Amino acid sequence: MIVFDKVTKTYDNGVTGIKDLTLKVQQGEFVYIVGQSGAGKSTLIKMLYHELVPTSGHLTINDFDFDTMRPQDVPMLRRSMGVVFQDFKLLPRMTVFENVAYAMQVIETPDADIKPRVLDVLKQVGLEQKIRRFPNELSGGEQQRVSIARAIVNKPTVVIADEPTGNLDPDTSEEIMDILDRVHAAGTTVIMATHNRDIVNSRTHRVIEIAGGAVVRDEAEGAYEVED
Amino acid sequence: MKTNVIKRHVRDSLRSLRRNGWMSVASISAVTVTLFMVGIFLAVLFNVNHVSHQVENDVRVRVSVDRKTPQAAKDKLAKQLKAIPHVEKVTYRSRNAELNSIVTGYGQQWKMFRGDDNPLNDVFVLKTKSSANTIAVTKKARKLANVDSASYGGDTARKLFKVADKVRNWGIGFTVLLLLVAVFLISNTIRITIMSRREEIAVMRLVGATNSYIRWPFLLEGAWTGLFGSIIPIVIVDMGYAAVISHSGLTVASNGYAFFSTMPFLFWLDVLLAGIGIVIGAAGAGLSMRRYLRV
């Protein structure tokens, strides 16, 4: 379970990213985080993987309490989740296979276990034919699929996706959403920040709207915008 | 660390070195140029030291014994000389042995002085523990009974000592300076390589890699850079040294002094150069990536 309890994040330059934000996400939920640019979506997402820490308030993600976490716990938190970025963030000098395998290597998985699991996950995202390609040899959609494969290869309990379709065309976006839906169907919590109105409206899930750093709307089966 | 993780780091570091292409070539070239200078300088410095030690050790105090000194007095003198502080060894050479040395060194015509015509004195040759003691020992020897004269080569020896000392001090200073330049040059080149990969390091952290897991392949890559960068300097310095020894070694040898022979000197010089490359390469990488590993 993810719990934000009156969390505020103020940057060094005095700008407030989120303010007194409180919300709970249960295990296995699919949540869209929507809102205009600058609303605080990215701040919220970055806090989830400890890229940013709260200035005040309490944040808990499963067994990780941000109040008591030590620096050496941060890699452990990140290993418990998968993160998908708008700009993919693949390792440019590694092949598709190596990018996905890297997430397993850092948790010291034996080589013998890595190969079958990576091939299985790459098959799930439809990239089993391109395992030796480098990221710059792939389309945007393919790179995002590698990114998702890397995010789910360790079977995390939470997948965080920060605008995963932001750089993709509508058809490719649908393919990515199909994969995320399958991940969710397997019991994984998915938290996805997005600007994509069509996707939010066509694949209904819980919608949390952020404005001015606070939750202004939280609907169990919401739409991108409030319907009149 | 588990064996399979170590293997993985070694494999990853070599793969990364290969895939970094021109950046790796640039780093290795910086190491090559620097170690080439270090190699030449070390070879010269070690040999200057070696020869100057030989020159120093060659300086002896020669104590001429008064003629007609009876054998008992000579024995007593030998004991007195041995008792002078800092004297390591006392060797007796009769006047006949002295003349034989001259005949051997300067020609048969000196044979005519053999027998009663021999104008030379018996001598005691004193070896001191350190060249710095030579003058004091000479002075003390002069004061003893039955000593005709005592000498150590005077001004020539003094000048030699000064030159040897200067070469050693300046040599050490210059080597330290050169090594600092090497550290600076190599670590800066590696820093540029790592700066270009800071995004990569950030991604590694985002997928849950610990700092040490990220650091090892980079450290090893730095070490490989140092090792591969030392190959060309080692080959050139070895070949150059062998050529210099074969051309000028004889000249020096005819003066009674010798450079280090190629083996095992070159072996240890090669090990030293490779070691400097590896240590500076790894240290440069370690220092450069510190800032990107802060949580």
UniProtKB/TrEMBL annotation, chain A:
Report the residue ranges that make up the ABC transporter domain in this protein. 2-228
- Keyword list, A-Z: ATP-binding, Cell cycle, Cell division, Cell membrane, Membrane, Nucleotide-binding, Transport
Q: Which reaction does it catalyse?
A: ATP + H2O = ADP + phosphate + H(+)
InterPro entries reported for this sequence = AAA+_ATPase, ABC_transporter-like_ATP-bd, ABC_transporter-like_CS, ABC_transpr_LolD-like, Cell_div_FtsE, P-loop_NTPase, Sigma_54_int_dom_ATP-bd_1
Cell location: Cell membrane
Entry GO MF terms: ATP binding; ATP hydrolysis activity; transmembrane transporter activity
One GO-annotated biological process of the protein: cell division
The reply to whether Cell division figures as a keyword in the UniProt entry is yes
Signal sequence segment: none
Q: Its membrane topology, per UniProt?
A: Peripheral membrane protein
Q: Name one GO cellular component term.
A: plasma membrane
What is the protein's quaternary organization?
Homodimer. Forms a membrane-associated complex with FtsX.
Protein family (similarity comment):
Belongs to the ABC transporter superfamily.
Protein function = Part of the ABC transporter FtsEX involved in cellular division. Has ATPase activity. Essential for cell division and viability.
The entry's protein name is Cell division ATP-binding protein FtsE
The protein's organism comes out as Lacticaseibacillus thailandensis DSM 22698 = JCM 13996
Classification of source organism: Bacteria, Bacillati, Bacillota, Bacilli, Lactobacillales
Q: Which gene carries the instructions for this protein?
A: ftsE
